[in-house]
Design a protein that fits this description.
Elements lengths: L1 H22 L1 H13 L4 H4 L1 E3 L12 E3 L1 H16 L14 H16 L4 H27 L3 H29 L14 H19 L5 H21 L2 H20 L4 H31 L2 H20 L9 H7 L1 H4 L17 H33 L4 H6 L3 H18 L9 H23 L6 H4 L7
Antiparallel strand pairs: 1-2
Helix pairs in contact: 1-2, 1-4, 2-4, 2-7, 4-6, 5-6, 5-15, 6-18, 7-8, 7-9, 8-9, 8-10, 8-17, 8-18, 9-10, 9-11, 10-11, 10-17, 12-15, 15-17, 15-18, 17-18
Length: 463
């Protein structure tokens, strides 16, 4: 029954969102806010059609979420307002075609896999991510009033951080959970999700000196609450990377046209970090000292199996087929000793080795190339030589770009130890934030580096 109810909400919601947002800019901004905000509740609210909920792979069905509903509704809105014509010759964001190649390689592996249906679960998700990437990037470049789009998506990121933080705090201090998972299926997803948004959001609220006090404190509180949730996961690497990425955001915000707000935020952040570190130090020390050796040994065993799969299968064993192949093929199953009693195997925690196992080393190379291509316009934007007037016209955009890169590099490091990038909320967050920033730098280039005016060049009045 829940599937029909959810499908009914989505099918009725798309035309309603489309019509209302096409007529009113405020509603359109709220819809962009909802799109990025709903990413945080993807695990809680999403529905898998033709699913196998007991499967331990990365995807368990043909998934739909409320983010998809708002995405299709906003596409409909755009088609109702104006023809789909870009403001420049470029029609897709950087890395889009490379990811299409990755998708094609993945499709080849799925067609030769032991369980193609499971592979198509992931193919479907990849198609949704490509659509989200293109839609957000495209809208950010052509929206007549940049504030409608950029303030909407950033407020959505703030909302998502706030939801994750509040839920995590409830689980920690009310439910007394040892390791919180907030809105996600597993606690390790929290740092990856938070790292992608907290740093750029922090840079935004510190850079936008005309932002109202209420909105500033909500944004500051959302980042703080999300970091508390990260602390409550007791993920040692996650805590370290979250702290480093947000500190980098704070540093760059104070290094370029610092305001009273950014200086005060620096003091509060340092004090909170010290107090928070003291509060959780005993628990973290206990986890370091008493972490079971079997956990690391199990990861190593799965990594060995992943390398073996990648070596023996040029196109891999098929997307989302690692768990199935480990469970049903004896020579791979034989690699497992620590968790040999489990009826069904999990997945390799090393995302890059998992990718190589499922798409071959060629698939891994293409995925890494995609990550690099997404970085190219952002790094190029930062390295471009400009006059003093051109730099002033950019406002606080460079700060947000640097913070975004810091958050994404934290994700890339995490992927050596976690596969959670493949979980829908984390994947959606990566594609959405990447698209937002790619659109921002692209629009600044298209408009002679002043067209973002109201959205980013708002630092003339300090508070």
């Amino acid at each position: 029954m829940k599937y029909f109810i959810f499908l009914g909400i989505v099918l009725s919601g798309i035309p309603i969102i489309g019509m209302l947002s096409a007529r009113n800019a405020t509603i359109r901004s709220l819809c962009w806010m909802a799109l990025t905000g709903c990413i945080a509740i993807g695990d809680m609210s999403g529905v898998n059609f033709v699913s196998n909920e007991s499967y331990r792979g990365t995807d368990r069905g043909f998934e739909l979420t409320f983010t998809d509903m708002f995405a299709f509704g906003l596409l409909l809105s755009r088609s109702m307002r104006a023809p789909l014509v870009e403001a420049s010759r470029k029609t897709v964001p950087s890395g889009f075609l490379v990811f299409c190649l990755f998708l094609g390689l993945g499709l080849i592996g799925v067609m030769t896999s032991l369980m193609p249906l499971y592979g198509f679960f992931t193919i479907w998700k990849m198609l949704r991510m490509l659509f989200l990437y293109w839609l957000v990037w495209s809208a950010g470049r052509v929206e007549a009033d940049p504030q409608v789009f950029y303030e909407g998506v950033v407020r959505g990121l703030i909302l998502g951080l706030m939801v994750v933080g509040i839920m995590g705090a409830k689980q920690k201090f009310v439910d007394h959970m040892y390791r919180v998972n907030s809105t996600f299926d597993h606690s390790n997803s929290i740092p990856l999700y938070v790292n992608l948004a907290a740093a750029p959001v922090f840079a935004w609220i510190l850079g936008d000196h005309k932002m109202g006090r209420i909105e500033f404190f909500l944004g500051f509180g959302a980042v703080g609450a999300a970091l508390v949730a990260v602390l409550a996961t007791q993920s040692r690497l996650g805590i370290l990377l979250a702290g480093v990425s947000v500190f980098a955001s704070l540093l760059v915000s104070n290094g370029r046209e610092a305001s009273k707000r950014s200086r005060a935020a620096a003091v509060v952040f340092v004090m909170a970090s010290v107090i928070g570190g003291i509060m959780v130090s005993d628990t973290l020390i206990d986890r370091v000292k008493n972490a079971p050796e079997s956990s690391a040994e199990a990861r190593d065993e799965f990594n060995v199996a992943a390398k073996l799969m990648a070596t023996e299968h040029f196109f891999g064993v098929g997307l989302n087929n690692f768990s199935y192949t480990m469970t049903n093929v004896e020579k791979y199953r034989a690699q497992v000793e620590v968790m040999a009693d489990e009826e069904q195997s999990g997945v390799a925690h090393h995302l890059y080795l998992l990718t190589a196992a499922e798409t071959g080393y060629i698939g891994l190379i293409v995925l890494v190339l995609f990550f690099a291509m997404v970085q190219v316009p952002l790094i190029g934007f930062l390295l471009k030589k400009r006059t003093k007037a051109q730099k002033a016209a950019l406002g606080f955009l460079p700060q947000v770009v640097i913070a975004t890169l810091a958050g994404q590099y934290a994700l890339f490091v995490s992927c050596f130890f976690e596969w959670a990038f493949r979980i829908t909320p984390v994947t959606s967050q990566y594609f959405a934030v990447s698209a937002i920033m790619a659109a921002a730098v692209s629009r600044s280039e298209m408009s002679g580096e002043s067209g973002l005016g109201l959205a980013f060049n708002r630092n003339k009045v300090a508070s």
